[in-house]
Amino acid sequence: MNSTNSDRALVLRGGRVIDPASGRDESADVLVRDGRIERIGPGIEGGDAEVIRADACLVVPGLIDPHVHLREPGQTHKEDIESGTLAAAAGGFTSVCCMPNTSPAIDNPEVIGRIRDRAAESGSSRVFCVSCGTVGRLGSEIADIAGCAAAGSVGISDDGDAVANPQMMRRVLEQCAEHDRVFMQHAQDPAMTAGSVMHEGVVSRRLGLIGWPREAEESIVARDIGLARETGAAYHVQHISSAGTVDLIRSARGEGLPVSGEASPHHLLLTDEAIVRMGAAAKMNPPLRTWDDVLALRHGVADGTITVLATDHAPHTPDEKNRPMAGAAFGIIGLEIALALYAEALVHTGLVSWERMIALMTIEPARLCGLHRAGFGMLSEGGPADVTVIDPDSEWVISESDLKGKSVNTPFIGTAVRGRAVATIMDGRLTHRHEPDAVSAG
Ligand SMILES: [Zn+2]
């Protein structure tokens, strides 16, 4: 639809160009043409290029979210590749990695090919597939990891569920090591969490709801670190919720193991008390925990233990969320608002700089999934023209009209935030533009 944009060159003028991969941090212009970054430097003329003013803005590599649910194939009433990538572009993302808990699951090269074709025809961001560790995510038969890697899978996961059986997990990690793909674990011991709907603690007891204890996450992570040590596989913990998991990852990294983890906006900002106020709108898996866990996650980011930020964008319809806790769906959306929420938790609190936060959203997830090899997650002349312009001072209140996906399930409606993506350029074309005037009008 926007393909004509790629015909015209663009110059991003007057911004602070931050590229954590190279250490560049300077006032400069960026010229893009034919899907490539042609030049970065001061005072670029650009000829007939369309000019986008970036004064007082950060010009950074296109943001990468390594953990989203696009719901296609199989649950396109919640989201699809077209709507989910529109949401991504609105949030400043130029690449997303979609999880394999679709229907059918992403466990074979044919599904990966279908998703790639759909993204090429209707995507506003790049879509990379994470494929299953086990067939159908059922945990009993190893998936075709070699075939999926050859077809373009950038990581392996049974997200939505853990690979619970340790012998199966060991075999999956051996395959990941052999085919140079990271394994991304949804760390949840199913036996310890049957029927659970929220963090096990004071609040769950008060509400009389079945709890999901921290140990159900930490025990899987501890086991897997041992298996990663044995197999040599790269191992990544998805959506960390517990302080103990941060400690486990810190110590594994201290040993030099290729172990990493990601934090989601909600786990960096909310606690299980949100359930009291908002009910199932705050129902997540893994669950929101306590303020001590929130602080441990934030400090884990600040000290370099947690190197990746990921939304776990999980669209559901109002009918699926507006239910009593026991019957409501787990999860919330996040692509359009993640940048501002991370800034609230990490930058405005003084814990990390904008430069480091940009790294956590660009080169770090790119390295996790091997995307840096194709030049993603960085700004370099001759490299792909994926660029995000961020106004770090833009103040706004999150409303439903900011959400571009099919679903609006987020507990952050009405939250005042600061910082937003004002322009997103993917493959040389403008996929999102937020005019500052529209902000003050609201
Ligand atoms: Zn998950």
Mean pLDDT equals 96
Q: Please describe the biggest sheet, giving its number of strands, its sense, and whether it closes into a barrel.
A: 8 strands, mixed
Bound molecules: zinc ion
**Could you name the ranges where pLDDT drops below 50 across 5 or more consecutive residues?**
1-5, 438-442
Instruction: Name the helicity range.
Output: 25-40%
Q: What fold name stands as the CATH topology of the largest domain?
A: TIM Barrel
| CATH first level of the largest domain | Alpha Beta
Alpha-carbon distance between the two ends: 28 Å
Structural class: alpha/beta
Q: List the domain count as a whole number.
A: 2
Q: What would you call the quaternary organization? A: single chain
User: Number of DSSP strands?
Assistant: 18
- CATH H-tier superfamily of the largest domain: Metal-dependent hydrolases
Q: How much β-strand is present in the residues? A: 15-25%
The appropriate CATH architecture of the largest domain is Alpha-Beta Barrel
| Anisotropy-based shape | globular
How many helices? The count is 15
**CA-atom Rg in angstroms:** 21 Å
Set down the secondary structure blueprint.
Blueprint: E1 10-19, E2 24-33, E3 36-41, E4 50-53, E5 58-61, E6 63-68, H1 81-90, E7 93-98, H2 109-122, E8 126-131, H3 145-150, E9 155-156, H4 166-178, E10 182-185, E11 198-199, H5 202-207, E12 211-212, H6 214-231, E13 235-237, H7 243-254, E14 259-263, H8 265-269, H9 273-278, H10 291-302, E15 308-309, H11 318-321, H12 338-347, H13 354-360, H14 363-369, E16 387-397, E17 416-426, E18 429-433, H15 436-441
Parallel strand pairs: 1-4, 1-5, 6-7, 7-8, 8-9, 9-10, 10-13, 11-12, 13-14, 14-15
Antiparallel strand pairs: 1-2, 2-3, 5-16, 16-17, 17-18
Helix pairs in contact: 4-6, 6-7, 7-10
